[in-house]
Amino acid sequence: MSFVRACAGSEVHDDEALGVTIDDVEVAVARDGDEFFAVQNLCSHAEVALSEGEVADCTIECWLHGSTFDLRTGKPTVLPATEPISTFPVEVRGDDVYVDISTTLNGVAPS
Predict the structure, then answer these.
(1) Would you say the C-alpha torsion 2, 110, 55, 47 has a positive or negative sign?
(2) Contact partners, residue 9, CB within 8 Å, separation at least 6
(3) 63-100: per-residue pLDDT in tens?
(4) Is 68 exposed, middle or buried (0-12, 13-18, 19+ CB in 10 A)?
(5) CB–CB of 60/17 below 8 Å?
(6) pTM for this structure?
(7) Cα 9 to chain center, whole Å?
(8) Cα-Cα end-to-end distance for the chain
(9) CA distance linking residue 63 with residue 47, whole number of Å
(10) CB neighbours of 107 closer than 8 A, spacing ≥ 6?
(11) Ramachandran region of residue 26, left (φ > 0), alpha (ψ -120 to 50) or beta?
């Protein structure tokens, strides 16, 4: 695994996401309580930034059409999206959030 610093944990507020670019891959780093998640920052349905949507109950919502995705699995939980998004391993080191984009947790390659 090759973890790269994505952001400071303090930059990601509870129930929000932050869009970052790691080696040309657009990633949304999301926080739900004390947990951090990293998913592709592109809705599989409408190709808009997921980091601009709301985070709640381990899901992230696409602001355009309301699709939601499980932050743990990348699977869509609300239509119109039917295809999953990539999920990436995360490590928290002190206040920094590190993401490994070379590996997807769910086997879905980033778009």
Answers:
(1) positive
(2) 31, 36, 92, 95, 96, 97
(3) 999 999 999 999 999 999 999 999 999 999 999 999 99
(4) buried
(5) yes
(6) 0.94
(7) 14
(8) 20
(9) 11
(10) none
(11) beta
Instruction: Report the Cα 95 to chain-centroid distance in Å.
Output: 18
Residue partners of 42: CB distance under 8 A and separation at least 6: 26, 48, 49, 50, 85, 110, 111
**Number of C-beta neighbours around residue 14 at 10 A:** 12
Task: At 107, give phi and psi (nearest 5°).
Answer: 75, 5
Tokens of 102: 């070379």
Residue with tokens 């952001």: 7
Length of the chain: 111
* Structure token digits, residue 41: 């920052």
**93 with 4: CB under 8 angstroms?**
no
**Separation of alpha carbons 68 and 62, rounded Å:** 6
